[in-house]
Amino acid sequence: MKFFIHWCFQFTLVICFAYQYNCENSTYTTMYDGIDLDEILTNDRLLAGYVNCLLEKGPCTPDGKELKNNLPDAIENDCSKCTERQREGADKVMHYIIDHKPEEWEELEKKYHSDGSYKLNYLLSKQKLSLDSQENKNVSNGDNGDDDDDDNDKDHQGGQQLK
């Protein structure tokens, strides 16, 4: 009986340590969340440094190394360990690279996510936002999106009502 109690206690400790480990590692480190992404994106030299790090073409800063280590897991698990801020930052960076650095995006995509689904989904959502924006603009200008004039039931050549 004493052995059983001792074994249960040890088992409980192991479970607690495993639970604590999983809880502590449920998200990626937030140590680098304060980095100014706009500064990196608007500076070709800084952006090239990060891209080269990810492509193993150059050295990595500490935050670049962290990104490089976590990127495969984040892609594989749909950023499930990302904080909301990290998700927003990742989308911002990837959207920028897709729109402004397509050659670099293609290299990164080949290395990390070769099926092209992220880019496709982004471009489709961008297209949908553009269409939604155009519809909202038309509605706010009083246009219901119908290209017909107010006399849409009249034959414009003869002025006769169509049946």
Instruction: Please state the structural category.
Output: mainly alpha
Principal-axes shape call: globular
Give the H and E element order. HHHHHHH
The major β-sheet equals: none
Give the rounded overall mean pLDDT.
76
Strand content: under 5%
Provide the helix percentage.
55-70%
Please mark out the parts with pLDDT under 50 across 5 or more consecutive residues, or reply none.
Answer: 3-24, 152-159
Q: Main attributes?
A:
163 residues
Kindly describe this structure.
This protein has 163 residues and is mainly α. The chain is built from 7 helices and no strands. The longest helix has 24 residues, at 117-140.
Give a quick rundown of the structure.
The chain contains seven helices and no strands.
Write the layout of secondary structure elements.
Layout: H1 2-24, H2 37-41, H3 44-54, H4 62-76, H5 84-100, H6 102-112, H7 117-140
Helix pairs in contact: 5-6
